[in-house]
Amino acid sequence: YVLAIDQGTTSSTVLVFNDAGQVCGRAGAEISQHYPRPGWVEHDPEEIWTVTQEVVKQALQEAKAEPQQVRAIGIANQRETTMLWNRHTGIPAAPAIVWQDRRTARLCDELKQEGLEPLWQQKTGLLIDPYFSATKVHWLLEHAEGLRSRAANGEIAFGTVDSWLVWKLTGGRCHVTDYSNASRTLLYNIHQLDWDNEILARLDIPRHMLPSVRPSSGIYGETDPRAFFGHRVPIAGVAGDQQAALFGQACHRRGLAKNTYGTGSFLLMNIGRQAVVSREKLLTTIAWRLGEEPVEYALEGSIFITGAAIQWLRDGLGVLARAAESEQMAASLTDNEDVYFVPAMTGLGAPHWDPYARGLIIGLTRGTGRAHLVRAALESIAYQTRDVVEAMSRESGIQLQELRADGGAVDNRFLMQFQSDLLGVPVEVPAITETTALGAACLAGLAVGIWASRDELTERWQLARRYEPKMASARREALYARWRQAVERSLGWSEAGTP
Ligand SMILES: Nc1ncnc2c1ncn2[C@@H]1O[C@H](COP(=O)(O)OP(=O)(O)OP(=O)(O)O)[C@@H](O)[C@H]1O
Ligand SMILES: [Mg+2]
């Protein structure tokens, strides 16, 4: 078996695959979300570890697999989320700052005013935004009591969630990350493949806090028997969840793209071995590195809130009891009746990059009901994806032929059809929609020789459903134009409002 851990923003999911790549066991559990102030989002690192451990146990039980039958462990993780812990005791030094957190927006403004963005973009492939880890590390060192001096003493380790899980699984022996995760920190030079001294100096982050960077497919170390049911098993694959999903979707060739419909949505296109600097405010990111092969890159459009808008209607407003109900509710209307929902609750990512944008619902009339809100939320997922697809076509010169879709919301047929209509290209849903975990398993399985090559993985990728565009193009463009107007109205909202 290969055990794949998908430590996501809202939950930890573990899948057990056999050597034919079939799912034999699956378990998942939610992670608590903490919102201590407007715009802040935190996780508890200890909870992430204990929940993940529990889910690993359940998934093995469900697969009727013994821990000693696991040949390799692969990890995919929510990216950018920032943790600091004590290297000697393993105790977290502060709550984890989640990728969605906007508390460093002012610092990002300062860095941009200093004119640093073009150079930092050239080095890291990213833009200056609170999204990435760098300013979160700086914030913790500045604001958590005594942390700066403890960091200077070498006591504090920094890591993203992958580093934390490998650290815990190996009993504190490995302080590592992989190339794909390193490339999301805004601290890593994706061309020279090294942490960047200038950026570290500007943010006052000591280099010795950082993990060492390893191939996404390769042996990281063995589990500490105390952390893995008395057994030593190699951890053999690590990647950020979106890069893992790109791998799991078998997007191994240049020009192949996928979009994941989870908490947020992340459209990634494989661009091969040559990195580009985006003029369209897309991100250039390391897709993966397999062993000692050259690094491969991807172009990414990151959308912060998509499925989370449905979650918010469910948990925040109580408009829905279950996410799946959204399909029928949306389909009960023949039209959006000009109601638009821009779910900019944590600012807007690609291609707008406005940390001060905030959510809005516009077009309300006395006739507006719950179904309108639900439909507008689902449609916003597709509109935001189109914003990114347009930028990506301009940037890459590659006209998308089809879009591979995965993640929790692909079960929603209304959404998938609307997405295809709005893009004017087919949307393809594979047989295994948990491509994040699949990608982590594939990276690990390749490293230990369970699977021989990527060709073998490509052959196994199977289509389950294909949605063809049906909407007339005049209508598509009219709807999209209205969306663009709604987005304009959401921009900059909190900048004037917060002291
Ligand atoms: N049928 C559905 N229609 C619309 N949205 C759905 C549906 N089912 C699930 N979702 C949404 O999909 C999201 C869950 O998808 P998924 O499990 O892929 O996300 P996730 O992996 O938990 O995200 P993350 O990795 O960030 O934790 C939730 O935000 C939920 O609201
Ligand atoms: Mg996920």
Tell me what the structure shows.
The radius of gyration is 22 Å and the shape is globular. It has 17 helices and 23 strands. Helix 12 (370-396) crosses helix 13 (413-423). The protein is α+β, with helices and mostly antiparallel strands. The protein has a domain at 2-243: 2-Layer Sandwich (Nucleotidyltransferase, domain 5), CATH 3.30.420. The protein is 36% helix and 22% strand. Adenosine-5'-triphosphate is lined by residues 8-11, 78, 241, 262-263, 307-308, 310-311, 323-324, 326-327, 407-409, 411-412.
Total beta strand runs = 23
By CATH, the superfamily of the domain at 2-243 comes out as: ATPase, nucleotide binding domain
- The 3D shape can be described as globular
Q: Strand share of the residues?
A: 15-25%
What structural category characterises the helix and strand content? alpha+beta
Low-pLDDT regions: none
**What would CATH call the architecture of the domain at 2-243?**
2-Layer Sandwich
CATH class of the domain at 2-243: Alpha Beta
Observed structural traits:
499 residues; alpha+beta; Nucleotidyltransferase, domain 5; seven-stranded mixed β-sheet; six-stranded mixed β-sheet; 36% helix; globular; binds adenosine-5'-triphosphate; binds magnesium ion
